[in-house]
Amino acid sequence: MVGNTATLAMGGGDVAREVMVPAYLAATLGGQVGQVVTLVTMEYLEGQGQGTSFVPRLVGFRSAGERRFFEVFTTVKGLGTKRALRALESEPVAVIEAIMRKDGKALQELPEIGKRLSETIVAELSGKVEALLADLGWTPGAVEVKAVRAVTSAQEEAVLALMALGQARGEAERQIAAAAGRVGEDADTATLVAMAFGGGR
Q1: Which residue range forms the structural domain that includes residue 37?
Q2: Which positions ≥6 away from 166 have C-beta within 8 Å?
Q3: pLDDT digits (tens, 9 = 90+) for 94-123
């Protein structure tokens, strides 16, 4: 599904199942081909044709908290499972923060999310997602992703530079977002990487 799938061997290699994952997770799994990855999964039935037959599909997450967020996220009218998987290019905590701020414009930066759907997400999930933060490892005072937003080419290059040094994409994005907040959104790649590593403190 749009590159967000993985085929996993289960039961000692006797069975192989295709597992769909959210976009933010797919980005971190690219460098783990051939390695053992543990996912918390959910299964749903996808209707075929006019609904006369159904195909079982697996969706994978890093934790039960991420799975719970996805289950709540997909209760929004007009936001089905596959659309939600493509939309979630940002970590769940960042999406929850945007909802808590009622920041529809931030949500529109996500793929598949237009103005009307972003407004629906805010309207239907405000007051429902805050309780999920603890299950996602968020604590008050922790370093937070402050916005779901488009990034400059320099910021993306800086993220890729950190990933080349072994950082997971989610952590690299958090560090570069924090760096950009300190040195400015127009900073070049070298400045962002230096700041992410503590330069200028």
Answers
A1: 5-136
A2: none
A3: 899 889 989 998 999 999 899 999 999 999
